[in-house]
Amino acid sequence: MRKTICLSFFITQSIILFGQTTEKFNSLASNLIPIDTIQIADNYKNGGTKETGTILKFEFEGDIYELHSGKLLRYYRNEQVCSEIEYNSFGCELSSKYYDLNGILISESKTTKIDINGDQVKGFLEIKKNRLVYNYNKSYLYSMKSNDLYLKSEGNTLNGKKIGKWIKYSRSGSITKVSNYK
Hints:
Largest sheet: 10 strands, antiparallel
Shape: flat
Mean pLDDT: 84
Helix content: 10-25%
Low-confidence stretches: 1-18
């Protein structure tokens, strides 16, 4: 029974991790094999945890590429989680959550699609130049009056720039503005 549960979890996670990527992306990714794994464990001068996570190293045509993989946690000096980011094995952000100093969620993002410009492995590894990352984003505000968190805005981005319909909300949840971006 335990093996069945573990196997189903692994299959589900594999589908989630690669469900956002296109066939072209997966084809290029299949040519890469990590040569090393680095565990990140940075601390502040006071000894508190600053950052934890994993980096995978890839070698291609004599160049070394280091890409985040798995969960990356960053902390404030008071050891409260600042951000929680989940990456696939090739440095693409799959989801992220950002918190204020009190641990209150202020924004979250979920990757909906990952594609690549070009068809070369080297271009694939140059993340900022060639990847097309589509995200669905939400930002929140905390209302002292109602002592509650509320959705302030939501919409899609492509490589961090707003695209499509973005909706802004009031504290009561009613729509205050709808904007369209190209």
